[in-house]
Amino acid sequence: MGPHAHKLSAYASQRLVSLFDMLSRKYAKLAELKNDKALKVTPDQMEADIISDDTSTELHIYTDFLRIVLEIINAILTYALPRNPEVVYAVLHRQEVFQPFKNHPRFNELLENIYTVLDFFNSRMDMQQLDGEWSVDKVLELINKNCRSWRGEGMKMFTQLRFTYEQESHPEEFFIPYAWRLILSRGFSFNPGAINLFPVEIHVDDSPSSEQKV
């Protein structure tokens, strides 16, 4: 989807970078925990090995998560930068979150393009003779102006991410009862005793029956 993103909103762009920041914090904690476990000597070595294996597995998962987010950002900046000034702004605004991973062997290749973009726009900002501080509007104005002259020089092309939707073997087992639950909840009149797809609460009228006339 990254190469085809068009005019991503400010909120979506900021959330994308914030997602990377959140995942990176979790990754850093897991990496620190793994190092502490490796240095710590414990009488129960088997238990320590199990904990270490769990931490390593979780760390590997977060590594993959971080790579996916970086690949999405990288794809947007590589193939669709002129159409997404808000993404450029979000990356510029939070550029410090990428610094710890700049030389990381699992992430550095994906960050090369991001830093190529950062260097380009940071240099354009440094060349501006500006009185006072940079406002959001002024930064976006500069980004939009320089997006027109962006040629993507020095950007590396990576294989685009492709995701496929995998459907469950029998999706109707979930969706048919779910759809009928929605229909019943909207007040459509059905005989509850005749419903077999899912359990239905049948309300019993506890009011005293009227006396029979003689």
Automatic annotation (TrEMBL):
One of its GO terms (biological process) is Golgi organization. Keywords: Lipoprotein, Myristate. Coiled coil: none annotated. GO terms for cellular component: Golgi apparatus. Belongs to the dymeclin family. This is Dymeclin. It comes from Aegilops tauschii subsp. strangulata (Goatgrass).
